[in-house]
Design brief:
This protein is α/β, with parallel strands linked by helices. The protein has a domain of 156 residues: Rossmann fold (3-Layer(aba) Sandwich). Helix content is 34%, strand content 26%. It is built from 9 helices and 11 strands. β4 and β5 form a beta hairpin. α3 crosses α4, α3 packs parallel to α5 and α8 crosses α9. The C terminus is likely disordered.
Length: 270
């Protein structure tokens, strides 16, 4: 039997939050979450801000350490084999960091050289990816600080894909993009998954995006995975005609795109 590419069991992550001068309370960002993603599958996690999506992605990306639970990505477990995991994942987040004074080309080539790639080969691959994402060649030498939010996000996606990782962890990858750029990114991810067999874990607020890209979807609410299945299964289970209505019925919450979830824990400590 084929093993999952991503396996998460009973994952838990809490933060201590100050509630007054002396008192502290614990906020469970991820509360006993279990799911799996098969090789070559695109799995979506949907939830409002504060539901635990970004915390979960950060754990899988080795940026946070879980309090308890089991995580395996391909043949590696976390946190014991974090260094090996970093070599097999590509991560795209809504708050991607760059050297803003450098151009898109310089940022991407720096990443390539950091990972031991040859500059000429890396540049060819990056140019192909950016072309498929619908980015003009003339923008390649423009400093990142002069680019729009959508353009910067395309560079972030190209940076994650230039190493051709077997696992992609995408945290709100199309947030802030204009409709055409969003379609470009979605089409590229579909082609990538079909061509390379890349395993993708996607968090999103966009129900249409989840229905288009994801074979299976999990609904997160208050740190818990409350429902899971195909879009059709989730709608049938809830008696809803749309995925939006299914989400509301199964979680009791509306899915609204707001501020970055990371700000919810600004006053928390691990």
């Amino acid at each position: 039997m084929q093993q999952p590419a991503i396996e998460v069991r009973n994952l838990r992550k809490g933060f201590r939050k100050r509630a007054g001068f002396r008192k502290k309370s614990e906020l469970l960002a991820v509360n006993d979450v279990s799911f799996y993603v098969m090789p070559g599958e695109t799995y979506g996690l949907l939830g409002p801000n504060g539901s635990g999506k970004s915390s979960l992605i950060r754990i899988l990306s080795t940026l946070l350490i879980a309090d308890s639970g089991y995580v395996r990505l391909l043949d590696f477990t976390l946190p014991e084999q974090a260094e090996e995991v970093r070599r097999i994942i590509g991560r795209v987040s809504v708050d991607a960091a760059f050297y803003k004074k450098l151009s898109a080309r310089e940022n991407l080539l720096y990443t390539a050289l950091l990972y031991g790639q040859k500059a000429r080969e890396a540049e060819k691959r990056v140019m192909r990816i950016l072309d498929e994402l619908g980015m003009e060649d003339t923008k390649f030498s423009t400093p990142l600080e002069e680019m729009s939010r959508g353009m910067q996000q395309k560079i972030s996606i190209a940076r994650a894909l230039m190493l051709n990782p077997p696992l992609l962890l995408l945290d709100e990858p199309t947030t802030g993009l204009d409709p055409k750029s969003r379609r470009d990114v979605q089409s590229f991810l579909e082609e990538l998954q079909s061509r390379e067999g890349t395993t993708i874990l996607l968090t999103t607020h966009d129900m249409a995006e989840a229905e288009r890209l994801c074979a299976r979807i999990g609904f997160l609410a208050h740190g818990k995975l409350v429902a899971e299945g195909t879009a059709a299964e989730l709608m049938q289970r809830s008696g809803a005609h749309t995925l939006d209505d299914a989400f509301i019925k199964l979680t009791g919450e509306e899915l609204v795109e707001e501020k970055d979830e990371s700000t919810d824990y600004a006053d928390c400590s691990v």
